[in-house]
Amino acid sequence: IAELEKPEEPADLPFTDLTQDWYMDSIRYVYEHELMYGTTDTTFAPDDALTRGMFVTMLYRMEGKPEATGNTSFTDVPANMYYAPAIAWASANGVVYGTSETAFSPEGKITREQMAAILYRYAQYKQYGTSASASLSAFSDDAAVSTYAKAPLSWAVAEKLVNGTDGKRLDPAGSATRAQASAIIMRYCQLIGQ
């Protein structure tokens, strides 16, 4: 993880739309480390859904924005979009796959299980251990987890990156919000990528 040193002085958050205590520390963390920015100069939009392009861009920034070799084969990732280098890098390194053979759906809302799967593959790319595993049976909707996401979500729960929407549901197909993503990324940086 590229130079994620804690700034000496906490930055004043410029966002006027942060109303919940549970996400304040994580939004401060991703903002101070330049992993996420606001949707405007004064708004963060914590409850808005995060897109697939946004999430991959966060990992790309964590990685220090490495040179992306070549373009992706995804026809829906224009080369001039902010997320294009991130998707090219992540695709080349096996961190992401498309929603089809030719599409990435960068503007599509990222689901909670997609976020876990991408983070799991990123940890593998970084050669961090991903063998931790927790039973998902404690969650009432464990049967709704897609087959591809079972191991990643089991790992994310074991590593305390994901703890359910209300402690009882994983909501695997639900859209992840910007605030939830900031919390998961902060936990990842602090617990896994030290």
Task: Explain what the structure shows.
- α1 (24-32) crosses α6 and α4 (112-125) crosses α5 (150-158).
- This protein is mostly helical.
- It is built from 6 helices and no strands.
State the low-pLDDT regions, or none. Answer: none
Based on Cα principal axes, name the global outline. globular
Would you tell me the structural class of the helices and strands? mainly alpha
Terminal residue distance: 8 Å
Beta-strand proportion: under 5%
Please give the count of helices.
Answer: 6
How many β strands by DSSP? 0
Percent in helix: 25-40%
What would a concise description of this structure say?
This protein has 194 residues and is mainly α. It has helices spanning 24-32, 52-62, 84-92, 112-125, 150-158, 178-191.
Strand-helix topology:
Elements: H1 24-32, H2 52-62, H3 84-92, H4 112-125, H5 150-158, H6 178-191
Helix pairs in contact: 1-6, 2-3, 2-4, 4-5
Give the tags.
194 residues; mainly alpha; 6 helices; 34% helix
